[in-house]
Amino acid sequence: MTTVRIGTFNCENLFARFRFQSNVKPENAVKDGWDVNQTAFDVLNATEKKLTAAAIKAMKADVVALQEVENLEVLRRFRNDFLGGSKSFPHSILIDGPDPRRIDVAVLSKFPIVHARSYQHLGVFSRDCLEVDLDVGGGKALTLFVQHFKSMLDKEHPCEGRKRTRDRRADQAAAVKKIVKDRFGAQAGKKPFVVLGDFNDYREADQGTTSAIKSLVDWDQIEDVIGRLPGAERWTHYWEGNKKCHLPEAYRQLDYLLLSKSLANVSNALPELVRKGLTPKATQAGTSRFAGVTAKTVASDHCPVVMGIAV
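RESULT FIELD:
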């Protein structure tokens, strides 16, 4: 069997736009839509990008599913400038999605990407469900379904965000389950696939509502492998809370690696979470941080999650 280290990371606003260098007129920098070049603009907040890169490097992953990436050119430039170039991840993919903020899901891979499909035409996904087939060698394929569900933020009703956005996430979770079943059948768990990404919800009921994603994360054809960790270690996201809404700070699992049952049954490893890029305010992450992390300058508000999978 081949062991492939698969990870997911919401890298929080991997943007390059709107940070033009001095004496550059944006209208003159645009060619054929947008010409990405160093003479026209800088990567937005290079310090944070270095920390984001440090978190990705710490994963030691063969394949990383990313959320909140602006576009493919930004992803490749980030890889070239901060991850060591194409030799680090020779293969990359991103398909522009419908999000008004222009944040997309993406994949960086050491293995060839031999098939990709977008499902944004269904009109249910906030970003996309990006289906990717990887050639992991020996005639074996591994399929990823990369997610970034609707956030719990409701600007008009900030104290009821989770409740008011629940239905959209529930629809997205149901759509993912149907997509996997349409691809692999009712006994999909017999096939090698991983559903992964930022689901923007957790299992516990609170804030006047219940979880929108349990139909997917508790599906009998998959295993949520973060559940292999002790309960106190399963959180992947730190939230400072909202004093106006009387909501305290929270440590929750928003990020998921859902392995098909066939993969989970032969993959006995534990998932690993990289917490060194979080704000020092997240005291449950301990005290170790990457150099340069401050209360305001972080790798992300999410923890990368990675695990070695036997394929």
